[in-house]
Design a protein that fits this description.
single chain; 127 residues; mainly alpha
Length: 127
């Protein structure tokens, strides 16, 4: 999605597909890495970088308001927080039950905001 939006070279779609295939083969056939959170964090960081670059480009150079600005901002924010949650998830066992519920609630609220921004954007596009 971001490769087309940022008008990057078309071969990056194939590079992305190859990278995803390598991650899947290494995890599900060779069981490497043993902890698949590494793959999640790497993919989320790539999404954060691409969405951040798209946001900067949209804010910097567009005189006409972009209809996808809200959705892109929510993608950037949600994936940024999800990387933080992936990093601390192994420490969750040491947290109290209330702290765990706070982190889980924050994740649920952010994902709800993300999905609502998608719905709002697509309903706005339909009009």
């Amino acid at each position: 999605m971001f490769i087309r939006k940022l008008e990057l070279p078309k071969y990056l779609i194939w590079v992305t597909a190859l990278l995803a295939t390598i991650f899947m083969v290494s995890k599900y056939i060779y069981d490497y890495p043993f902890n698949s959170d590494i793959v999640k964090v790497v993919s989320n960081i790539i999404i954060i970088c691409l969405s951040g670059f798209a946001l900067i480009r949209e804010i910097k150079g567009v005189s006409v308001p972009n209809r996808f600005l809200l959705a892109d901002a929510c993608i950037f924010f949600y994936y940024s927080v999800s990387v933080f949650i992936f990093i601390i998830q192994h420490q969750i066992a040491n947290l109290s039950e209330n702290d765990y519920y706070i982190i889980l609630s924050a994740n649920n609220i952010l994902s709800s905001i993300l999905y609502c921004s998608f719905l709002y954007t697509f309903i706005k596009l339909k009009k």
